[in-house]
Amino acid sequence: MTALPTAPTEAAPAARETTAAPAFRGRLLPWLFLAPTLLVLAVFLYLPAMQTLSLSTYRSNIVLGTRQFVGLSNFAELLSSPAYRQVAAQTLAFVALVVVLGLGLGLGLAWLASRPIRGGRIYRLLLIFPYALSPAVAGTLWLFLFNPEVGAVNQLLGSLFGVRPRWLDDPTLAFGLVTAAAVWKGLGYNVVFYLAALTNLPKEVLEAAEIDGANGWQSFWRVVVPLLSPMTFFLLFTNVVYALFDSFGLVDILTRGGPVEGQAGVTTFLVYQLYEDAFRNFRTGIAAAEAVLMLLLVGVITLLQFRFGSRRVHYGA
Amino acid sequence: MALERVEVRRAAPSVSGRRRLSHALTHAALIVAVFLVAVPLLFALVKATQPSDQVITPNLLPGGAFFTNLGRVWTEANLGRYMLNSLIVTVAVVVGKTILSVLAALAFVYFRFPLRSLTFALVLFTLMLPTELLIVALFDLVSTRLGWANSYLAIIVPFLASATGTFLFRQHFLNIPTSLADAARIDGCGPLLFLRHVLLPLSLNTIGALAVIQFVYVWDQYLWPLVIMQSDERQVVQVGLRKLIDVGGQTDWGAVMAGAIVTLLPPLLVFTVLQEQFSKGFALGQDK
Q1: Which spans are transmembrane here (chain B) (predicted)?
Q2: Is B148 found in the same domain as B98?
Q3: How far is B273 from chain A (nearest CA, A)?
């Protein structure tokens, strides 16, 4: 339910799971403890999920109050629509950029900040604070910073080079701006988790590399990066989920999905399109079909995580 | 013997010289990085303190108008009300989630009952159902059928259960020696007493870690409140921010920046205060 699921924990000892005797007895008691959680999940997650599935097979309009069964034609309409395909393609490009830049910068900064230098704690705190910022706050700050008339960036560019780009009206610039803001906002999260993984690296392996004459650069690429691969894998998935869903607040405040280029706004990503179709255009069936397609996407991603994420990709250790 | 010593002595200065240079480079790189990361926030901080006539100029000197700016959004644009709403909702969800997931984890770890694995799988599976994807059906359920569109219930109740929390507490309980539970049972202690006197004191780091994640997650929520909350009196501060920007054609940027600063303070405070617990609470180390 949270956009940040679980950290890559050691798998719980399997033996205790099955063979050990239960600590407490009682038939009703465990169900009593589980009841609140199960009730909330059933009513507010499973029920709406099933309803989304059924809604996706209807053409309905909340405003007109019409409802007609159309089978899979909503899906056919979406998959053949050039606008939707453009939205899907630019979402994938956005996700790929956010993940690659976010993980690369996150790892580099965490590596620098984890070195035994004076003031390390302060550097670390100053690098991870964007974790606590919301996408909406990030959008608000960037909206002012890149405002074409009164924003600091254009005042600087204007006085230095005499240019004042229209950041939010130019498709390429707007797409780049939203991507940069999303990377900035996600950086703290990546640094936090990479720092935790770095402090838990086996010291002996790094010392051995140093004794063997590896310089900082070599031990980083040949030793640290491979040892961190389980964490990288975990962050890969949380970042994909972050880029897919949490980008909404940022986009809604910064660009409202625009500016239009081709068939759709260049910063209209899948979630934004879903919101527009559901609550602006009132195309409920289409919106539900979009949700189902995204559910499939999330399903594939989560299955991949369970399939590969639990496997320890460590070398040595 | 003597030869070795000479070599060591000769090697030492060059190593420490290289180390000093690399430390200096590290400091330089970190200072640049920290500055770049902080620029948007620093800019907002400065502009939030400037009087209206300076906010839109290139002037980057802090002024003394922060409370004037804040005062404008706090009362006129309803920011105070939004902040209170966010606080109520966030505290309710964080406390509720912690209680519900501790109880669920207690059932999963310390009891054997039919369909236990299947039930756990059903809880974990909900990680694949982000609220964002369910908003169409959830909106229908919460606003039309339950009639909660204008109440806090709409943004509290659907978020009370937590697969993340249940999973984290379960992992943590599994690493606490079973003998403790056996001893408690032999002493005639029920599961709830065991929870209160043994498990909870041993779980403070996990509780702290979960509290940080959930606080930040709930406080920063945007899409669901935007869609479901029709009453402005109950709206949360993230959506409130959007309304600050929208006012008329002329945005009062000084006031908006003051509002943004105040909006980001609570999660930042929680995060800074509980940062140790946050790092420790995740089973990232071998010595867990």
Answers
A1: 21-46, 87-111, 118-139, 151-169, 198-219, 253-274
A2: yes
A3: 11
**B44 in the same domain as B92:** no
pLDDT in tens, chain A (317 residues): 434 444 444 444 444 444 456 778 888 899 999 999 999 999 999 999 999 999 999 887 666 777 888 888 899 999 999 999 999 999 999 999 999 999 999 999 998 888 888 888 888 888 888 888 899 999 999 999 998 888 888 888 988 988 888 999 999 999 999 999 999 999 999 998 898 888 888 888 888 888 888 777 788 888 888 888 888 888 998 899 999 998 999 999 999 987 988 888 999 999 999 999 999 988 889 999 999 999 999 888 878 877 776 554 444 33
Q: Do B245 and B173 reside in the same domain of the chain? A: yes
Q: Which residue of A has its CA nearest to B144?
A: A62
Distance from CA of B205 to the nearest CA of A (A): 14
* Whole-number Cα distances in Å, B82 to B48, B71, B216, B225, B237: 19, 14, 16, 12, 5
| Interchain pair A187, B241: CB under 8 A | no
Domain of residue B21: give its range: 2-48
Planar angle of CA B123, B125, B126, nearest 5 degrees:
75
Residue A67 is classified by DSSP as E
ipTM: 0.85
Give the separation between CA A82 and CA A273, rounded to whole angstroms.
13
We report the CATH number of the domain holding residue B135 as 1.10.3720.10
How many domains, chain B?
A: 2
SS3 helix, strand, coil % of chain B, rounded to 5?
A: 80, 0, 20
